[in-house]
Amino acid sequence: MFTLKVDEEIKLYLFQPHHAIELFQLVEKNREHLRSWLPWVDDMNSPSQFEAVIPLWLRQFAENNGITTGILYKGELVGSIAIQQIDWHNKSTSIGYYLARKAEGHGVMTRSVSALINYAFFQLGLNRVEIRCGEYNKKSRAIPERLRFVKEGKIRDGEELYGRFHDIIIYGILARDWKGMYFR
Amino acid sequence: MFTLKVDEEIKLYLFQPHHAIELFQLVEKNREHLRSWLPWVDDMNSPSQFEAVIPLWLRQFAENNGITTGILYKGELVGSIAIQQIDWHNKSTSIGYYLARKAEGHGVMTRSVSALINYAFFQLGLNRVEIRCGEYNKKSRAIPERLRFVKEGKIRDGEELYGRFHDIIIYGILARDWKGMYFR
Amino acid sequence: MFTLKVDEEIKLYLFQPHHAIELFQLVEKNREHLRSWLPWVDDMNSPSQFEAVIPLWLRQFAENNGITTGILYKGELVGSIAIQQIDWHNKSTSIGYYLARKAEGHGVMTRSVSALINYAFFQLGLNRVEIRCGEYNKKSRAIPERLRFVKEGKIRDGEELYGRFHDIIIYGILARDWKGMYFR
Amino acid sequence: MFTLKVDEEIKLYLFQPHHAIELFQLVEKNREHLRSWLPWVDDMNSPSQFEAVIPLWLRQFAENNGITTGILYKGELVGSIAIQQIDWHNKSTSIGYYLARKAEGHGVMTRSVSALINYAFFQLGLNRVEIRCGEYNKKSRAIPERLRFVKEGKIRDGEELYGRFHDIIIYGILARDWKGMYFR
Amino acid sequence: MFTLKVDEEIKLYLFQPHHAIELFQLVEKNREHLRSWLPWVDDMNSPSQFEAVIPLWLRQFAENNGITTGILYKGELVGSIAIQQIDWHNKSTSIGYYLARKAEGHGVMTRSVSALINYAFFQLGLNRVEIRCGEYNKKSRAIPERLRFVKEGKIRDGEELYGRFHDIIIYGILARDWKGMYFR
Amino acid sequence: MFTLKVDEEIKLYLFQPHHAIELFQLVEKNREHLRSWLPWVDDMNSPSQFEAVIPLWLRQFAENNGITTGILYKGELVGSIAIQQIDWHNKSTSIGYYLARKAEGHGVMTRSVSALINYAFFQLGLNRVEIRCGEYNKKSRAIPERLRFVKEGKIRDGEELYGRFHDIIIYGILARDWKGMYFR
């Protein structure tokens, strides 16, 4: 398992094909919870579907165009976080994530997002990280707000979720903001 | 030449390889003007470079993932307008454009954008069209404002232009807005 | 819809995926009529098959290797005409076509073929256009004869149609013939 | 060396990359002679160019879409003969060839063509073989005439050769003709 | 049929798609015999499966990365022999084979392997040929031993055969050994 | 940086494009030392060559066909270790490695190989791991011997190194050996 260390409790690991079952089980146990905001949840009904999609994530990683990882909290898979498509010309990317219900309330996601922001700014040399949340997805929005992202706009009908469009809030943080806040 | 009729004065045509010279000449004559807001202008220095990129635009068209056209105003090529990558899941796309200086002031671009919005909503069945403009690019911003797009946000450092980042304004219009405004 | 104007009554348009249903209906209504001379008619039994083949035609267009269009006569799809594979080394191509029964007798196909010949000679810069017809397909053969193509040969057993070979007549016209006949 | 036996004196062998030098030397020695009727001769100026094209011929063979062979006459490479693209739907193909000057006059090509016709009709199960010759290429035309092909037509400006178009004669033979002539 | 002549009785021919039926019949008649040592036998249950795999073998041939042939003994297909993946950097390859029961005892395989070794050393210019046999596959091991290969090692659990691992003996011969033994 | 933890001192990390410079420097500093046994050393003369090859390693990882990592010893890159092509049918792979001179003598490589063997047997579920060493490469051979691999054979002329062939020793270890030795 290839991991990016967040802190003593949390590690992010690259999904490989042999992780398909544990990833499926995570989704399976949190299906009701996750489907509120993730459009693909209803389509994923067996480990073999994850076994098919994981190589695509790794290929994206191989093309330096994003990273999809599992979040290990005290040794257990409790969620996923990803650097999505990278716009190398404009040195910009976005981060997406989801968390098992039972792991909520420990700052797991805030710490994981912080780690990937560091990764994006200091290892990849990017200039901007975006997080996009459904307008009424409070838990998701709490993450960028806690990390002092700037709310930059509202994309009307930005996402279709099970037949209904809803609005998307864009949050952004720039490398100079981040360094200013956390590295003085 | 395969054209989409805008009105009696204006047609949009799909660029094909044999249009490379006229497209190069358009850019060549408006180089100073265009490079203020378009990142690729300095890189395009010969017709053969357009001959190389036009097949990529046509391939994108073949994959139902965007359309790049030339704007014919009274029979002359005066600019370009494109439907950029299409997000079919969320039924959303964006439109980009540029115009020769000498064709400004006749509503050419406003009419052309209107035509592509109609195309996007009525032929492709999309739900949302976005226009992204540099914050200080007044002429570009005038188009979505004239067409009553909603200003939805400001993407900080959204684009790198010749070594300097600048902010990007996002404008959006939805199919229901458009139909409500123009088809009552 | 991207169109090549033939005259006030007729336009040729590039098929795109959202035209699959109207193309299917054209074939469906003229099935008996068309299957006499077209080998693929019996294989096309649903709009989704056209939805699958249209992107291949567009890809051929993107590779500058042919164009497949629908014929709009007074605003209605009444047939199809195509520039088939282009032999760029020898500057030569062939044209194929079919027409709904109810649109026969108005010169629709003769005018459409003329337009594509103009396109081949003046826009693509080709030197030779060929039309191949089944020996006993009188209506098809009438087109090149009316346009003063030269009958250049008979390919014995040139085509297999539903299990039986039949002979193919080759008609050819050269750019210099065409210009001599119509542009003096 | 993988060979198709023609008779005691002649064998046809599949070109492989390690044959590039001998093929280059054949062309080199017969350059003046060959360039009269073959458009590619002036472009081939080193063995490495043949080393690059031979894998493409083998790939065509692997796709069951043609065979390019060298003609061994009394153990020496004296020419080349090929089954060109195969139209499997219509069970038709064409044969092309060229011969070193010094090997002319022994019936080498007539025998080689006969062998490939047998191969096309009896091993591949095709129905029609075509040979296309420049109108004034007497030696080339003598082959299909000697083998009683039917002259089926003249393609005006069928080929461009070093900047000048010339007419092409089409000869055809059908499986039933061939079997009738040679196997009674 | 493209053949490599071994001697007056034996030829090796490149499998082409139209040979699928005869190859299937060979396997079908020797199924019990062959499945003892070949992992793929149980998976091949119709000629169409060979029709699918033969183009892959030909493609490997086109890429100069191996050759799969049928063994013709007195005009009848009695087995198969292949040059497997070629390691061009280290100038090394391996040979694999199988024979119909009824053709055993005539030296068919020893002579065929000799011919492919000559081919590998003298036509392809390789330096080393390897043969890998199951430890208890006496008939297979007899071939390299008869040809004075050196037994170089035993790969424990080198191959899985129907759910059970077994050990593999590696035999090797070098170009200089071969030339020393047979060409003094 | 995505790492596989070996122990408190050693981590293995997946090479990504932004590691090209440090990898180049490792090779540059140990060029004399490394070229004795690695065929590619003389060909790698700039960081950009590593930048080109790293995506190929990641692609191999994405295809579940091997892993190429850097060895971090006390936070510094001191060598590389890789799982090479995986034979999934036979559940077998091989491991290759090299180490900077200054990091020798601390058991770095023995511990790293152990970790990858664990990875191969317990995470990937393989059955056999092979290590191939030049016969006279004492330091390399010491690793499998220390880990109680079985010496299974000697491949004569197994590798070409700067124009000279040399013999290769094959060492193998099976999952059942490994579990027996280290997990009783």
UniProtKB/TrEMBL annotation, chains A, B, C, D, E, F:
Question: Ribosomal protein: is it a keyword of this entry?
Answer: no
Q: Tell me which InterPro entries the record gives.
A: Acyl_CoA_acyltransferase, GNAT_dom, Ribosomal_N-acetyltransferase
Q: Might you report a single GO cellular component term?
A: cytoplasm
Recorded GO molecular functions are: protein N-terminal-serine acetyltransferase activity; protein-N-terminal-alanine acetyltransferase activity
PROSITE patterns recorded: GNAT
Identify the keywords attached in UniProt to this record, alphabetized.
Answer: Transferase
Which residues are in the N-acetyltransferase domain? Answer: 21-176
Q: Which domain of life is it from?
A: Bacteria
Name of protein: Ribosomal-protein-serine acetyltransferase
Species annotation: Neobacillus massiliamazoniensis
Source species taxonomy: Bacteria, Bacillati, Bacillota, Bacilli, Bacillales
